[in-house]
Design goal:
The complex is a heterodimer of chains A (about 350) and B (about 70). Chain A is about 35% helix and about 20% strand. Chain A is of the alpha/beta class and about 350 residues long. Chain A has one domain: Vaccinia Virus protein VP39 (Rossmann fold). In chain A, helix 6 crosses helix 8 and helix 7 crosses helix 10. Chain A is globular and about 75 Å long. Chain B is an all-alpha fold and about 70 residues long. Chain B is built from four helices and no strands. Chain B has one domain. Classes of the chains: A alpha/beta (about 350), B mainly alpha (about 70).
Chain lengths: ~350, ~70
């Protein structure tokens, strides 16, 4: 019984870096950095990260990058709103998968003292948007953050975690680099994103070619997101969803915009070729099934916003069992109770 | 992509002409879309070439539109 308890505790707590270096047979692990080598059991390798880096680099060095920034700007704005809602100032903040820095441009020097921007694409970091906060750009993968434990007061991530292979590990890394009482504010694409495009391509491919292959990447469900954040060690979770609908002239324009945003498909099991006939069929199906009155077609982007805190003693905790002073049965007399407590104070 | 992206540019420019040609074939596209949508209704079955006739009409209209624009531009 005692042995089992000890094993359970070992599994729950991430092992110290020094211990792991011994287990790796002498391989050097930089002290303080998240211990390497322990990917979550069942971690999938869905996305080709190398290709995603090339796609993001290509998208960032196009002649008019602002043309495709509208979605990221809007979500960056909403994340900045949530940061302002937290009545606290952060000395050191980190943006994971920042792109051209859409969140930093909306924040001011008082709220965030210094901003670290990380992304896998160097062209995006080179063309970053102007902001009044002093920033440091670091080329880093979302799954391998090169920072020490307990470094940052605030970590933000806007619309980049949906291309991460091992999401539990990425969230654990974010939890690792946060200081106690630090907060993580993130935005991710949800399950309903681009469902019109997914359905149209599926139907058209089935009708034209007899089968279909996935063209839209898999997204996390909202329940799984809560579980993942809890498993990574975050407290006091808040997850809310939002839908942004953008109207396009047609399916081809939508696909061109997605490519311009750097959101092209990069999963290993993607089909290398999309036949022109299938594209034509899908555009016809899309228009017929989903068009608006004015002839444009909508595309839905469902965004999940999540806020998670790293544990600190000062945070509110659930009260002890049996410490209630008022019973639920007296809920009807709540007004009386409230005025009584006001009078006594 | 190659250094000057000649092939990609050519293919992309051809693809950029698709929306206007599709706009020229609105009726056929709508017919094809309705056929596919009908096969997804309860009781229908979507299999290969279930709407082949509508698609042939759409494709020939599309090719005719392509020939028209090609003739017009050259």
């Amino acid at each position: 019984m005692l042995r089992q308890a000890r094993l359970w505790r070992l599994w729950r707590r991430p092992p110290a870096a020094r211990v792991l270096a011994a287990n790796l047979g002498g391989r050097e692990v930089a002290s303080g950095v998240f211990p390497l080598g322990n990917t979550s059991p069942g971690a999938l390798n869905i996305f080709d990260r190398n290709l995603k880096r090339k796609q993001k680099n290509w998208a960032a060095q196009q002649p008019e990058p602002m043309k495709f920034d509208y979605l990221r700007e809007e979500v960056g704005n909403r994340i900045a709103d949530r940061i302002y809602d937290i009545s606290r100032d952060f000395t050191l903040a980190l943006d994971v998968g920042c792109g051209r820095g859409y969140i930093a441009q909306h924040l001011n020097k008082e709220t965030v003292g210094k901003f670290f921007q990380t992304d896998i694409a160097e062209n995006a970091l080179k063309n970053s948007l102007e902001t009044e906060i002093p920033t440091v750009s670091v080329l880093a993968d979302e799954e391998f953050l090169p920072f020490r434990e307990n470094t940052f007061d605030l970590v933000v991530s806007s619309l980049s975690l949906h291309w991460v292979n091992d999401l539990p590990r990425a969230l654990e890394q974010i939890h690792y680099v946060l200081k106690p009482n630090g907060v993580f504010v993130g935005a991710m694409f949800g399950g309903d994103t681009l469902y019109e495009l997914r359905c149209s391509l599926q139907l058209a491919e089935t009708e034209r070619e007899g089968g279909f292959s996935p063209h839209i990447s898999p997204f996390t469900a909202v329940n799984d997101l809560g579980h993942l954040l809890g498993r990574a060690g975050f407290n006091t979770l808040t997850v809310d969803t939002d839908e942004i609908q953008v109207n396009y002239p047609g399916m081809f324009e939508l696909m061109e915009d997605l490519q311009g945003m750097g959101e092209s498909n990069c999963s290993w099991n993607r089909k290398a070729l999309l036949h022109r006939e299938t594209m034509l069929a899908a555009a016809a199906v899309y228009r017929e099934m989903y068009r608006n009155e004015d002839g444009s077609v909508p595309a839905t982007y469902q965004i999940y916003y999540m806020i998670g805190w790293k544990y600190h003693d000062s945070q509110a905790r659930p009260a002890e069992r049996g410490s209630a002073t008022v019973s639920f049965g007296e809920l009807g007399k709540l007004n009386n109770l409230m005025s009584q407590t006001e009078k006594s104070q | 992509m190659s250094a000057n992206g000649a092939v990609w540019g050519r293919v992309r420019s051809r693809l950029r002409a698709f929306p206007e040609r599709l706009a020229a074939c609105g009726a056929e596209a709508a017919a094809y879309g309705r056929c596919v949508q009908a096969s997804t209704a309860p009781g229908g079955r979507l299999s290969k070439d279930v709407c082949a006739r509508e698609f042939e009409a759409l494709r020939s209209c599309f090719a005719a539109a392509a020939k028209r624009t090609l003739k017009g531009s050259s």
